[in-house]
Amino acid sequence: MKVAILGTGAIAHAHADAVNALAGFDGLADVELTAAVDIDADRAAEFAARHGVAQHGTDLTALLDGGGIDVLHVCTPPSLHLDQARAALAAGVHVVVEKPAVLSLAQVDALAEAERTAADGATFTQIVQHRFGPGAIRLRRMLADGALGRALVATCDTMWFRPPEYFDVPWRGRFDTEGGGPTMGHGIHQFDLMLSILGEWTEVRAMAGRLARDVDTEDVSMAMVRFAGGAMASITNSLVSPRQTSALRFDTEAATIELTHLYGYADEHWTVTPAPGHDEVARWWADDVAAARHHAVDEGRSGHLAQLVPTYRALVAGQAPPIGVADARGTLELAAAIYRSAFTGEPVVRGQICPDDPFYDSMGGTGAPWPPVKDTGEGN
Fold first, then answer.
1. Which residues, at least 6 apart from 13, have a Cβ–Cβ distance to it below 8 Å?
2. How far apart are CA 81 and CA 71, in angstroms?
3. What is the pLDDT, as a whole number, of residue 297?
């Protein structure tokens, strides 16, 4: 399969490294990174030289019209994702989009329609690499087979730090171009993982604030979430926390399972504390870690390669990738519910945000409860 990367900024290097590593896996020897596109010609050329890419340029349309591309990785700012993904799908090219896939529920529904009418069965997938680390896979399996009993309580904390100059990039800190603050652009990594483990949520109550950064969006949000299975969870998303950490905790009937990392995790970042009378859980976890090391991708770490191996195996086989539009929508709906609850002071239930709701078209919805500091052109 011939692969192109659109947008050659920082995250694109993670995509390139992962794509170039795919040839070392069974069934993926013919996956090849062949093109890079960026509006900055010099940056595209530098990226191509660094990653051994034969073709580079500045024109996505020319790349798609020229044919010969099977998969497009979209690594541009979020406000550009929808139109670029539509163009690729219409050309019969599979799309892999960095998260957040799009900026709103309206856009993700438009993306679903674009995939439904795509040429040559082209498909969409979003990068949610934390779902594919072996610890997350193990936890989902142990919950599914009853080894941990029911999930009862969870916490999901993305406590990151971004200095004021981070927001000097024009599209950051704006609802119309970034989609939101840490809820959309940062914490979404962790609560997407939480959703993959706990399943569908049913109710959200939230708060958000602009506490310390010169942005139109929030720089902190907090939410309480109830899940269909009965579990309750708290979610905190912050960009003003000097000691950075990404931490998830799952309290089940049989054990507490914790993950503490920053931008990616391995098996050593997980801990297991059995409940009284359930010492066997720690043994089962350790045995599974030992067994999985013989089959681990990228030394058992979460990351783009861990997701792209099963994704490309599916594409080569003509099957749907493991993450589809519905998965992206479920996570975006939770983000929209956090914003709606925080900005209106009301609880939000799943399915409430419909096309006639302002939070369907924008995470900013009716507007943040603080004055704007940047001219977004949309009054957010």
1. 47, 50, 51
2. 15
3. 73
